[in-house]
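Dear colleague,

Following up on Tuesday's group meeting, I ran the structure prediction for the two-component complex that the binding team flagged. I've pasted the input sequences exactly as they went in, so you can double-check that nothing got truncated or mislabelled along the way. The C-alpha cells for the whole assembly follow below. Feel free to forward this to whoever is handling the docking comparison.

Inputs:
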Amino acid sequence: MVIAAVSTSATQSMTGADRLCDALLAHDVDVCFANPGTSEMHFVAALDRQPRMRCILGLFEGVVTGAADGYARMSDRPAATLLHLGPGLANGLANMHNARRAHSPMINIVGDHAVEHLPLDSPLTSDIDSLARPMSRWVRRIADPTRIDHDVAEAWAQSMAPGISTLILPADMAWNEHVYREDLARGERLPQAPLEQATVARVGAAIRGGRKVVLLLTGAALREGALRIADGIRRATGVEIYAQGSNGRIERGRGRAPIAKLPMTHEGGGPLLRGVDMLVLIGAKEPVSFFAYPNRQGRLAPPSCEIVRLAGPDQDLPHALAWLADEVGVKIDASPMATSAPENPSNGALTVDAVNRLVAARLPEQAIICDEALTSSGFFDYSYDAPPHDYLQITGGAIGIGIPMAAGAAVACPDRKVINLQADGSGMYTVQGLWTHARENLDVVTIVFSNRSYATLWGEMSKVGAQTPGRNAQRMLQLDQPELDWTKLAGGLGVESSRVSTVSEFSRALDAALGRRGPYLIEAIV
Amino acid sequence: MVIAAVSTSATQSMTGADRLCDALLAHDVDVCFANPGTSEMHFVAALDRQPRMRCILGLFEGVVTGAADGYARMSDRPAATLLHLGPGLANGLANMHNARRAHSPMINIVGDHAVEHLPLDSPLTSDIDSLARPMSRWVRRIADPTRIDHDVAEAWAQSMAPGISTLILPADMAWNEHVYREDLARGERLPQAPLEQATVARVGAAIRGGRKVVLLLTGAALREGALRIADGIRRATGVEIYAQGSNGRIERGRGRAPIAKLPMTHEGGGPLLRGVDMLVLIGAKEPVSFFAYPNRQGRLAPPSCEIVRLAGPDQDLPHALAWLADEVGVKIDASPMATSAPENPSNGALTVDAVNRLVAARLPEQAIICDEALTSSGFFDYSYDAPPHDYLQITGGAIGIGIPMAAGAAVACPDRKVINLQADGSGMYTVQGLWTHARENLDVVTIVFSNRSYATLWGEMSKVGAQTPGRNAQRMLQLDQPELDWTKLAGGLGVESSRVSTVSEFSRALDAALGRRGPYLIEAIV
C-alpha cells in the first residue's frame, strides 16, 4: 500500500478519537453502524462533533455488522462499525462471517480498555485480537495515536482489497490529546495481481477446441456489464456459465443475462457438472457441497474435470471476462436482451411459490432483493425477467443476515425499494434490526415466510435416517409451540405490518407496502 | 484428572454421537440447551434416542449459553450446549463471557464439518478453535470417536474446576459407527489446590493484631453457610466483609448474613477501601474499576494496602473461611439472624426505587432473582431482609444475560419462582429468550425497566465532558424513536404481559404475576 499525505486540518490539538474520525471521513467512510459502550464514549463524543458522519444504532451487534455488509454490497465501499469490546465484537462475528464470504469491505472499530487497565482484567476484558482474527482479513491494535491516520489508511486499503479490517481502539488511544503536525495519511488501493496471459490462453484453447467448459462467476463478474460479456461468450461458444452457489450481489432482471446459480448440493450441483472437462473460476471458489455427508465426496466437480483459476476475488474480474472474450474472438452485443414478463399466480391458499412469483411480478424498477428465505427460496428462478434489480443473498450460512442486510442496503440506496425475503427461524436471530428499519425510516418491505420450523433441518434429519423424529428432535427443530407472531414483534419494534394467508391477501398487502415509503412487514403464513 | 471406567452398556455398535450422549448422561449432564444445524443432525438424532436428556431450544445462541449459565449457577453442575459451527459458537460467546466471569461450569458441543470436508472451506467453515479459546477454560477437537467418552470425562472434570469446556465435534466423528468394547470413562473432579497454612496464619495475625482488614468474597463463599462464617468473623473481630462487585450467586435474605457488594467504581469502591491495611481475597479478584478513566488508577485499593490471596475460585472457599475463623478463635452462631421486614412504598408515579422495594417486599420464599437492571438496580439494597432467595447478576458486563439466565435458573429449579429485573436496552440483546420461557412454560416473571435509553452511557458521556450531546450521540444512546413496546414483543413470543406506570398498577401486576405459574412480563415505565 502507498500512503500519500493529503491536505486537511493539520497542526491541531485534538483527541485520538477526533483524528480517527477525520481519517475515516478522509476515505469517504461516512456511515457508522454502531452499538457503543463506555469504553467507546470518547469516540462517540468525536462522532458527535462530526455531523458528516451518519451514525446508525443497532440494538444488537449482529444488526450492526449485517447492516455494514448490506451497505458495502450496494455501495462498493466500507461503512465503519463501532463495537464494544470483546463481547460486542463476538455478537457481530456471525454476520462478519457472511460479509467475509461476500467479499464485502468493512472497517470495524472495536473499543478496548485503556492500555494500563487491560492487565487488571476487569470484568469486560477478553482477548479481542483472537476473537477478531478468524473473521477479519486484517487486524490491528492501535498503539500510537499520532499514527492513527496511518492505521485507518491501511484499514481502508485492506478493506477495499476487499475484506474486513478490524481496528482495536484502546480507550486511552481515543481520549489522549495530541498535536497533529502532519496532514492526514490517505490509503491507496492495493495493487491487483495481474491476470496470467498463459491461463487466459489455456482457457481460450479449451473453448476453441470444443472441450466442455463451465465458467463459474462471483463478485464483480455478476454485475450487468461483466455478465453480458460472460453471456456473450456462452452464446458464441457453447460454454456454460453459472454464478457460484452464494454471492454477495447479482445484477439481475429484464435486459440482463439470466445466469443461474450452481447449487452447493450433490443433487443440484453434481449433475450440472457431470462430463465437464474444465471448470474456470472467475472470482469463484471450487464448488463443494455446503455440508459433508457420509460416504460422499465434498467436491462437486468430477475428478476428471480440470479446475482453472482464471481470476481470484481480489483481481479484476470484468477484465478477465473481457480478455477471455477477446481470446476466443467474441464480440459483445450491447443491445438489451429480450426476455418475457413473468406470469402472475392465481388465487387460493398462499404458497411459497406464489409469494416468490408475485414478488418477482410486482418488483419495482431497481429494487434490491435480500434473500434469506432458505427453504422458502425460489424468487431467484422467477427473477431473470423481472424488472432490473439487485439480488443479495446469505453468503456464509450464518443465519440472521436478512433484516440487517436490508437495513444497510437501504442506507446505501435511499431511493430504491428494498425487499427482504425472510425465513422465520433465521429472522429471529436479528429481529432487533426491524427497530433500525423504523428508526431510520428505511424503505424496506420484510416478507416473513412463516412456516414455524427450522425447515432446512427437517430435511437434513431425514437424510441421517431419523424418519420419525421423536420428542427431543421435535423440541429442537419446531418453532410452533408457541407460534411466533411477527405482526406483534414488528409492532413492538415500531414497524407496521400485516399477516396474510391467501394469495389475494398477500397481493393486496404487497401492493400497499410497495405503494408507500418506509418500513413494512408482511407475515406470510405458508 | 483420574479417569475410572464405570459400568454401562459396553460392547455395542453405535455412532460416536450416541456414545457422546451416553458419556454426558454418565456424568449426569442431562439438560442440553440447543440451537442445532445440519452438521449436528447426527447428534440431534442421538439426543432423540435418549429421552433422559432434556433438550431445550433457544432461538439464538446467546439464549442457549446464557441459559446454561443460569442453570449452572443454580445447580452447581454443567448443562450441555449444542451450537452450530463457528457462527453459532460466536453468537453464544458473549454469554459464555459472563459465565466465565461467574465461574459457571458448562460443556459446549460445537459441531464442525467432517474432517475431510474442512479443508474444502465450504461457506460455513471458520476457525472454531480460535473463536472458542478466549471464553473457554478448556478446548478439545474430537479426533478419535472411540475415545469420545474420555474427552467428555475430561470436559466434565474441567467444567467442574469450574469453567467452560468446549468440545468441537466434526460431523464424521458423530456419524461413524464403532464397536465400543470398554465401559464409559468417567471423569473425577480435579484435585483442589490446598490452602496455605502460612497465608491463613498471616491473615489471622493481621486480624488479631488489630490491623484494618477487609475480606472480599465471591463464589461458594457467598452461600449461606460460608457467609455466616464470614459474618461471624466480622462481628467478633471487626474486619469488614464485602462480596466482590459482581458475583455468580449470593444466598440472600432474612436470616442470612447481609453482605454488601464492593462497587467497581472510584466513587463507590474507592472510599470503602480507604485506610485498609489488608485486603483478603477469598475467591475474589483484586478490586479494580470496571472501566478506565483518564488520569485515574484502575486499582481501587490504596497502594499501601497489602493484598493477600487466601483462596482462589478453584479452591475450597467455605473451608478457607472456616479455617480463618478457627485461626482467630471465632465460634460461629448457628441461630438465624434477626432482621426486619422491608417497608412497602406508597402510591404515586412508578420509580425505579419503588419497583425494587416492592419486589423485595413481595418476594416469594426461595425465589431466584436475576439482576440485569444496570442503572435501574437497587433491589439488592432492599433484599437483605426480604424472604430467603438467591441473587444472580450479570458478571462479565456482556449485556443480554438476564432473560436467558432466568430461563436456565427456572429449568434448574422448577419449583422456585424466578424474577428477572431487566434493563430495556440489555433485554433487547436476547429478547428471543422470552420464547423459550413460553415454550418450556418456565415460572419466570420478567420486569422490564423501560427508560428508553442506554442510561449507563448517558452518565458516561457526561464523564467525558460532552455535556450537551448532539445528534450523533443521541442517535446512538437513545432508544425512544420509536419506543419499544415490550408488551407487543412479549406477545409476539408467546408471553403474557402488562404495561404499568403507577405504583398501584405495578403492585397489582406483580401480585397477579406472582400468584400464577408460568412466564409473565411486566413493562414498568420508569
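The two ends of chain A are 52 Å apart (CA to CA).

Cheers,
M.
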